[in-house]
Structure formats: C-alpha cells, structure tokens
Write a structure and sequence with these properties.
Number of strands of chain B: 0
Number of helices of chain B: 2
Low-confidence stretches of chain A: 1-17
Oligomer: heterodimer
Strand content of chain B: under 5%
Radius of gyration of chain B: 14 Å
Order of helices and strands of chain B: HH
Order of helices and strands of chain A: HHHHHHH
Mean pLDDT of chain B: 96
Helix content of chain A: over 70%
Shape of chain A: elongated
Largest sheet of chain B: none
Largest sheet of chain A: none
Structural class of chain B: mainly alpha
Mean pLDDT of chain A: 87
Low-confidence stretches of chain B: none
Number of domains of chain A: 1
Structural class of chain A: mainly alpha
Largest interface: A-B, 26 and 18 residues
Strand content of chain A: under 5%
Distance between the termini of chain A: 31 Å
Distance between the termini of chain B: 38 Å
Number of strands of chain A: 0
C-alpha cells in the first residue's frame, strides 16, 4: 500500500527537480513583457517568432486603426479593457509613453482597433502561460 | 499611419492572429498545431459569416 504513493512521489520529485532549476517564472514574466520572449528563452524559436508576429501584429494594427489604449478605469467596461491592455506588457507601457492610440473612439474602425489591442493582450497572457507550462514540463 | 480595413478584412485578420496563438498554445506537436489553428480559423470566419446572415435576415 505504501510503496505506490512513494514510488509516484519519487518519480515526481525527480522530474520536478529537473524542471525547477533556475527561476521557473522567468519565461512567464518575459513572455508577458515581450510577446514571444518566453518561448525564445526556452529555445522554441519558431513558436516564439509566430507568437511575437501575431501578437505584435494585432497590437500594431489596433493602434493603426486608431484604437483606444485604456488608461483609466472609471467604469467596469473601461476596467476590463484596461486589464486586457495590460496583458500586452511593454507594448502597453511604450504606447502609453509615446501617446499612441486614440483617446476617444471616433470612427468605426477605431472600435475594432480597441478590440484588437485588448485581444492582443489576452492572447499574450495565454502565450506567456504556455511558456510557463513548457518551462515546468507540464507541456512538451 | 491610419489603417481602415473593411469589416470582413478585419474579421480575417482577427481570425488569423487568434488562430495562430490558439494553435501554438493549445496543442503539442506542430502537425496538431497546424490542424487546430486551421480549425479555429475556419470556425472564426464561418461563425462570423453565419451570424452576419442571421442578423441580416432578422433585420429584414
């Protein structure tokens, strides 16, 4: 009865020690700050390049469509938009610092652009979590 | 630079970028990533077309 759990625990700790060398959250943080960087750290060059191109492309198209980069959270919808935008990491902070994006939506494409920017942030969070899962060995 | 795509072009771009990320993050092997990405792209574009026709018919 006692051997089975010990055997499982022993096998788990062995693989865990291999996977937990260094700071395991580095790909997660790097991937959040710079799209694709988490995968680059893990030498997944192709996946990282595709993720970076997709997320940065979506973000830049959103900016080019004059989408809103949320800065305040006075209403619940603005708060959700801000939360999504923050998922872009450094792209968000750079765009804020450079004053990119429109303050108010004035044309139809600007509304789509705002959604592009928010969704780019959410996709970046998914990509960063994927890099973390690769780092911990949860995903091959 | 101002980019003003048509509504359908915006749908295609959105579907393309989201499908690439979904394919890479939700599957493990390159072959399955490609299949899942194509599946997501078809679902994004297909559902947008179906919903557009539904709204058009409801509005009439």
């Amino acid at each position: 009865m006692a051997t089975s759990p010990n055997k499982v625990a022993g096998a788990g700790s062995g693989s865990k020690s291999d996977a937990s060398q260094g700071f395991v959250y580095l790909p997660l943080i790097a991937g959040w700050l710079v799209p694709g960087a988490g995968h680059f750290l893990l030498r997944k060059w192709g996946r990282g390049a595709l993720l970076a191109a997709s997320i940065m492309g979506m973000f830049m198209l959103g900016i080019a469509m004059q989408g809103t980069v949320y800065a305040n959270a006075h209403e619940i919808l603005e708060f959700l938009g801000l939360a999504g935008d923050l998922g872009n990491g450094m792209l968000y902070f750079i765009s804020r610092a450079m004053g990119l994006g429109a303050d108010q939506v004035q044309v139809t494409t600007a509304d789509w652009g705002s959604r592009f920017i928010v969704v780019a942030g959410l996709l970046n969070v998914i990509a960063a979590v994927d890099a973390h899962n690769l780092r911990t060995g949860r995903k091959a | 630079m101002i980019f003003r795509p048509s509504h359908f072009a915006a749908v295609l771009l959105f579907a393309l970028f989201a499908s690439v990320v979904f394919g890479i993050t939700q599957r493990e092997t390159p072959r399955r990533m490609l299949h899942y990405g194509a599946y997501c792209f078809a679902l994004f574009v297909g559902s947008a077309i179906v919903l557009s026709w539904l709204m058009y018919l409801i509005a009439r």
